[in-house]
Design a protein that fits this description.
alpha/beta, 12-stranded mixed β-sheet, 10 helices, HisF, histidine biosynthesis, lyase, lyase activity, Imidazole glycerol phosphate synthase subunit HisF
């Protein structure tokens, strides 16, 4: 049985951790450096740091914040948002990140994934897929912070990303984001079943049961959550305890 990972996500805007609903209505949650340090010390397997307004504002990822966060954590750390070139990736990795997350830039120029995987290694490239369910029953890839419909089918795009060399897929349900009624199990399972690389479930977690559910109902390698940890609804340790109780193998705190 593969050990599942619990990953707190820190969405950052203007130097503060924020959280919204369906990618909108952001409210401040705290300081990214302090929060990242606390999660690292309290059982998080990895962390994801997303500069959520970098792409829509057309600027680079906040490397200074990345450096400060990387200095304080002892677990693997993924950074995404505003990453458009190999130079951007190099800058973020040199700042201390272990991996980078790429979304909009890959839709614009898919070759970026292949080039990045060749230069830095597939294990350092996480392909983010923000997916929205449309009336015809398909999930489409959304870019620019969930605002723009790319027209791409999320399942087929995930397959393509694997072919290009991505080391993991991070699908986030735009419809479920921040709503707290559980992960989109159908979306997650469809992507897990379509690719052979690790899939990180994201979007909609409202309690520890939702994390157990996504591990039981899909073969996701990890579960990403933000609100439940930022709002002290449950701790990483409590999530892991429930997972063990329900027969889901997780790492020690």
């Amino acid at each position: 049985m593969t050990t599942k990972k619990i990953i707190p996500c820190l969405d950052v805007k203007d130097g503060k951790v924020v959280k919204g609903v369906n990618f909108e209505g952001m409210r401040e949650m705290g300081d990214p450096v302090d929060m990242a340090k606390a999660y690292s010390e309290n059982g998080a397997d990895e962390l994801v740091f997303l500069d959520i307004s970098a792409t829509t504002e057309g600027r680079d990822t906040m490397v200074d914040v990345v450096k400060k966060v990387a200095e304080k954590v002892s677990v693997p750390f993924t950074v995404g948002g505003g990453i458009k070139t190999l130079e951007d990736i190099s800058r973020v990795l040199e700042a201390g990140a272990d991996k980078v997350g790429i979304n909009s830039a890959a839709v614009v120029r898919p070759e970026l994934i292949a080039e990045a995987a060749e230069k830095f290694g597939s294990e350092r490239i996480v392909a983010a897929v923000d997916a929205k369910l449309f009336p015809d029953g398909t999930w489409r890839v959304m870019t620019r912070g969930g605002l723009h419909d790319s027209g791409l089918d999320a399942i087929e795009w995930s397959k393509k990303l694997e072919e290009l060399g991505a080391g993991a897929i991070l699908p986030t349900s735009v419809d479920r984001d921040g709503v707290k009624d559980g992960y989109d199990l159908k979306l997650t399972k469809a992507i897990v079943d379509a690719v052979s690389i690790p899939v990180i479930a994201s979007g909609g977690c409202g309690n520890a049961e939702h994390i157990v559910e996504v591990f039981k109902e899909t073969n996701a390698a990890a579960a990403l959550a933000a609100s439940i940890f930022h709002e002290d609804i449950v701790s990483v340790g409590e999530v892991k305890a429930l997972c063990r109780e329900r027969g889901v193998e997780v790492s020690e705190d």
